[in-house]
Amino acid sequence: MTVGVQHSAVxxxxxxxxxKVDPAAPLLLFDSGxxxxxxxxxxxxxxxxxxxxxxxxxxxxxxxxxxEAQIAAxxxxxxxxxxxxxxxxxxCIACNTASTIALASVREVLEVPIVGTVPAIKPAAAMTRTGxxxxxxxxxxxxxxxxxRLEAEFAADKRLLRHGAPELVAAAEAKLRGDxxxxxxxxxxxxxxxxxxGGEAIDxxxxxxxxxxxxxxxxxxxxxxxxxxxxxxxxIARRIAFLTQGQPWRRDGDDIALFTRDDDDLPRLxxxxxxxxxxRIVVL
Length: 284
Hints:
Layout: E1 2-4, E2 10-13, E3 27-31, H1 37-46, E4 52-56, H2 68-86, E5 90-93, H3 96-109, E6 114-117, H4 121-127, E7 132-137, H5 139-142, H6 145-154, E8 159-164, H7 166-177, H8 184-194, E9 204-207, H9 216-223, E10 228-231, H10 233-243, E11 256-259, H11 265-275, E12 280-283
Parallel strand pairs: 1-10, 3-4, 3-5, 4-11, 5-6, 7-8, 7-9, 9-10, 11-12
Antiparallel strand pairs: 2-6
Helix pairs in contact: 1-10, 2-3, 8-9
């Protein structure tokens, strides 16, 4: 079971919303790949009438093996171009890695409301009965000082075990393309956390990458029924709904899946994109 949360898993800048909003102005959700679709799914449930542009930086995927400077520069530059071109009413950085690293720099260049996502450590600390929490993220996310601060603030009396699992990002991308994935990928992630001191007592795992809820069923099979999962997608959707409450909505055409590179994988993603209401593919 995955539990969504609000304040502890969401970082945002409400900004000063204009008095009048173009009803056709979209929500812009940004991720390095298809992981942010796990967030879009929850946004659709609360705001089915909202026009959406889902932007995937597939040319930069994966973010987890890049430096902080590379990620901050890339995300800020791309979102600057995208907001200038598409004029969204709100931007959601539906990526833990990009949010924990680039949120501050993005706030400096964008004047629209921004919602980011960060690891859901606070609710995990409230959920655990054993006091041992696992955290799965990218290698870039798990080493961030932001995560250290969340741990110190909300889980100082718990044990937080972190594991960088780039294989899981690739597995989620493959799953949505319809490609087979070796179950050993999920077993390795579970074993890596279990092998750490105290890891046998893990009863809650934070999915600190928006790709990972897309493969939660597979992870649950690897970890076993005694482990619960938590991520921030429900809270992000609620925050977006709050920041746009009372605004008019009008969808003038198909919602867009925007990619930064044209490649052979895009046609294979069409079924998954369609399932999330994205029937038009555009390359930036």
